[in-house]
């Protein structure tokens, strides 16, 4: 039930963001509803984490960090895939709105990837006794983060240039190639990894699974709202750039 | 418990901070647009 809602939310958020990118100025009003939904989900998720999800026997209370760490993976992948979709649409049409969608997806994806990389070690320190381990899952996630931080650097160094837009579109499309390596890192590493297995596969107890699911729903809609805000900002900045070029011409 | 609070506090602060950054940048862009007419 919750996993179906997560899948449905990913599809709905993707469809909404593609529709929004078509005319940000005219359609940004709908972001208010998405923001409201995200805001309503936050207390539900936190209450489930605090009172509904049981305390895990082996790890104790620190296992509750999982309910913020695991849901962050969905917006991370979503952001980078959205960036690739925006890149493909930009290369096909050469319309700035798709480039803006690609940048917004990459930026918000990096934000959630950073969160995952910060929150993971906060769990690892009490659980493993170390902040970080160079195992395949952690290293691949860090590489994924570096790939998209480099994407953002490339954009910020060459703001407004069509060549930069083309290069970053291609780079963003190529970057998603790293996602399967992150997802399947545990299979590739076989038993040589400290990172726990993918919870979806090992089958969590119902209360834990529902709490993770509601966390995912919350993060998907926060992600969609943030991408919408970033898109609106990109559209305003692009208009300002055109106006300043016209003034100097 | 402090680790759990730290994880959730960091998440909240990062998300709120980014949202605030976007709002401030949006306001600045709108002000700039108004100034240019």
Q: Which structural class fits the helix and strand makeup of chain A?
A: mainly alpha
Q: How much helix, percentage-wise, in residues of chain B?
A: over 70%
Mean pLDDT of chain B: 90
Give the overall shape of chain B, derived from the CA principal axes. rod-shaped
Strand content of chain B: under 5%
Q: Rg of chain B from C-alpha positions? A: 16 Å
Low-confidence stretches of chain B: none
What is the CA–CA distance across the termini of chain B?
A: 54 Å
So what's the CATH class of chain A? Answer: Mainly Alpha
Map the helices and strands.
The complex is a heterodimer of chains A (249) and B (37).
Chain A (H helix, E strand, L loop, with lengths): L1 H21 L1 H4 L3 H22 L13 H4 L3 H21 L2 H33 L7 H22 L4 H14 L3 H5 L1 H5 L9 H4 L3 H43 L1
Chain B lengths: L1 H35 L1
How would you describe the overall organization of this protein?
The complex is a heterodimer of chains A (about 250) and B (about 35). In chain A, α6 crosses α12. Chain A is an all-alpha fold and about 250 residues long. The radius of gyration of chain A is 19 Å and the shape is globular. Chain A has one domain (about 1-249): Four Helix Bundle (Hemerythrin (Met), subunit A). Chain A contains 12 helices and no strands. In chain A, about 80% of the residues lie in helices and about 0% in strands. The N and C termini of chain A lie far apart (about 60 Å). Chain B has about 35 residues and is mainly alpha-helical. Helices cover about 95% and strands about 0% of the residues of chain B. Chain B is built from 1 helix and no strands. The longest helix of chain B is centred in the middle third of the chain and has 35 residues, at about 1-35. The model of chain B has no long low-confidence stretch (mean pLDDT about 90). The interface between A and B is medium-sized, with 32 and 21 residues.
